[in-house]
Amino acid sequence: MTPVGAALMVKVSAVTDEAQGIRSFELVDANGGSLPAFTAGAHIDVTPPGGPVRQYSLCNNPSERHRYLIAVQREPASRGGSASMHERVKTGDLLSISAPRNHFPLASAGGRSLLLAAGIGVTPVLSMTEHLHAVGAEFEMHYCARSRQRTAFFHRISTAPYATKVRFHFDDGEPAQRFDVTTQLQGPQPGTHLYVCGPSGFMDAVLGAARARDWPESHLHREYFGASVQPCGPNGGFEVVAARHGAIVTVPPDKTVLQALAEAGIEVPFSCEQGVCGACVTRVIEGIPEHRDMYLTPDEQAANDRFTPCCSRSVSGRLVLDL
What is the pTM of this model? Predict the structure, then answer.
């Protein structure tokens, strides 16, 4: 398997506790130069000490070239990424990262933006607000958190020149200020795009409400930070044909397609291994996938012409891929 993204070496120039359980890391070029440009909504792969590669959204102003800013929430059930970042990374350390990639860009057509964030999902949305304010675009942001103490970048946002366009919603606050998607999300408006990031339950509720109100799918933009790892069973194994390699690979119930292909010597670019980032998306030539990803939209999944080999399976006994 081949992780995507060219390696860049950066130095940790600052580590800051932004909220309860959330810590930010300012990264600068290890040699003192400029970093590759990025656009609002972009993320980077980070390889923490002894931990697996993880994706973190850039939450600083996209016009900045002297630094990247990421924020990491300490997960109680961490598989190594957030624990390593919180416990082992300190100011002055060197880290290997990828160049920025963006699977959650702002719509090129512009118009009005409705930004909905919950918890650590504020990170890509914060970069969006910085850009939208800088270019004078119309936007409205809602930021939901369990409490004021768990709200990352509260001071930065509440004192920003765009603060009047942001509303905070705290679970432990007065009922009147809580975010109720069924009442606060109106029907689609011409030229308005909705962007949502946060826990999967929050995102599913927002997207479900938007679709129920007939928002066009092309105006719904989302980014999942993580997906629950689903077991490969109980369905049995199946065959994957790598068409360009001319190889037939058996995928057993206890392995992913990505793993089975790697063992057969067929490399596929990957990153998150959870069906979130889209780095491994592969074209389907024949067969019916069983989509388990959170990257493809419902319409894209229904088309059955693309597939995420890191987590998805096959309904048909054979799946022919453009590999």
Answer: 0.77
